């Protein structure tokens, strides 16, 4: 199932004109001709043009994009699916939006970290250039600032986990709500601190903001005891944490045992697959496109089971975010490897990277 960008917000007058001339272009759509003139003029999906690329640290860069039509908007902390062409093939990945939801220049931005051996992140960090066209998918995510904004805030992040938090900080700055904010960010080396200059600038401009950069290569991984010293009143703050699983697991346990878990909000870039799931039934997966049957145990994602059998299946993030691996279930039951929930979504789109077979199934990709 090919993915496409979000539906753009096209002016009603333009929609009416396109509808009026549609029959004149049969069998092609008006969009096909418009895209020959300018690929940004598509009304089938939202696209954007890269305005500039800004290096943030040694392995991370911000891609600033001007959407072709009015940006539908996002909440601080949400992510967007980004589609790019690499060697003639479209690839989709999900990236946190790091821009203020109401940017003065009209540009949105994502800030990918280079993953050696990857496909998309090296292209975005090293090769994409101003003028390149990208596809923009739907905006998603529930890791967002509440409204109204709590009076006292704590942000804890590590590595690229700071990306959704940066959108929150920029939004707070824009709305002049930086009254009592503590930011704790961990990176392996000083050269890997993303947004280091902007974090310093925010701290310098706002007396109510404290920024603590923790270099784990020198001090070791940050612990709850370290947090007690940096921010003694953490129990009284609405907290947003984002980063690798190891950090979030430790913080979540600490808040559950010693704080208020209702005031702890987290964003996992790597959801726990199988963390809460027991041993499932498994079954035979019938891939309708290739007419091949693959045996799957109750703990292996459909995607992995197919790949282990030699099938070339669509995939992207492998953690249930980017929707590149989506297929249509034609029959049978599935089990969600994150929650252990069993369902029978016949005819619905399902993500093969986070679901496994619960009995025999048929799926179309």
TrEMBL record:
Pfam families found in the cross-reference section: FAD_binding_6 (PF00970), Fer2 (PF00111), NAD_binding_1 (PF00175)
Highest rank taxon of the organism: Bacteria
Location of the 2Fe-2S ferredoxin-type domain: 283-365
Sorted UniProt keywords: 2Fe-2S, FAD, Flavoprotein, Iron, Iron-sulfur, Metal-binding, Oxidoreductase
Any one GO molecular-function label of the UniProt entry: oxidoreductase activity
Gene3D superfamilies to which the protein is assigned, alphabetical: 3.10.20.30, Nucleotide-binding domain of ferredoxin-NADP reductase (FNR) module (3.40.50.80), Translation factors (2.40.30.10)
The FAD-binding FR-type domain, residue ranges: 43-146
Keyword Metal-binding: yes
Listed InterPro entries: 2Fe-2S_ferredoxin-like_sf, 2Fe-2S_ferredoxin-type, Beta-grasp_dom_sf, Cbr1-like_FAD-bd_dom, FAD-bd_FR_type, FNR_nucleotide-bd, MRET, OxRdtase_FAD/NAD-bd
Keyword Iron carried by entry: yes
Protein name listed in UniProt: Ferredoxin domain oxidoreductase
């Amino acid at each position: 199932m090919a993915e496409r960008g979000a539906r753009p917000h096209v002016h009603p007058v333009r929609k009416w004109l396109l509808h009026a001339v549609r029959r004149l272009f049969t069998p092609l759509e008006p969009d096909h001709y418009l895209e020959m003139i300018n690929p940004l003029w598509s009304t089938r999906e939202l696209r954007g043009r890269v305005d500039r690329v800004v290096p943030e640290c040694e392995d991370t860069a911000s891609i600033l994009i001007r959407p072709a039509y009015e940006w539908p908007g996002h909440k601080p902390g949400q992510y967007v699916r980004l589609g790019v062409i690499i060697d003639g093939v479209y690839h989709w990945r999900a990236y946190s939006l790091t821009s203020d939801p109401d940017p003065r220049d009209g540009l949105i931005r994502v800030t990918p970290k280079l993953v050696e051996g990857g496909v998309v992140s090296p292209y975005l960090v090293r090769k994409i250039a101003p003028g390149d066209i990208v596809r923009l998918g739907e905006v998603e995510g529930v890791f967002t600032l509440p409204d109204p904004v709590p009076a006292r805030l704590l942000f804890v992040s590590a590595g690229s986990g700071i990306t959704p938090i940066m959108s929150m900080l920029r939004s707070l700055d824009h709305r002049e709500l930086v009254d009592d904010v503590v930011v704790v960010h961990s990176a392996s080396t000083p050269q890997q601190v993303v947004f280091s200059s902007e974090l310093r600038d925010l701290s310098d401009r706002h007396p109510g903001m404290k920024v603590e950069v923790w270099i784990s290569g020198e001090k070791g991984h940050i612990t709850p005891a370290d947090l007690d010293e940096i921010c003694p009143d953490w129990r009284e703050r609405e907290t947003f944490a984002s980063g690798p699983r190891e950090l979030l697991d430790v913080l979540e346990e600490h808040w559950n045992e010693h704080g208020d878990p209702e005031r702890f909000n987290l964003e996992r870039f790597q959801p726990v697959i199988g963390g809460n799931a027991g041993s499932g039934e498994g079954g035979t997966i019938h891939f309708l496109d290739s007419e091949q049957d693959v045996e799957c145990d109750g703990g292996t994602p459909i995607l992995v089971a197919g790949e282990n059998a030699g099938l070339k299946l669509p995939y992207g993030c492998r953690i249930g975010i980017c929707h590149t691996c989506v297929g249509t279930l034609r029959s049978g039951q599935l089990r969600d490897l994150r929650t252990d929930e069993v369902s029978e979504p016949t005819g619905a789109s399902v993500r093969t990277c986070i679901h496994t077979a619960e009995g025999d199934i048929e799926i179309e990709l």
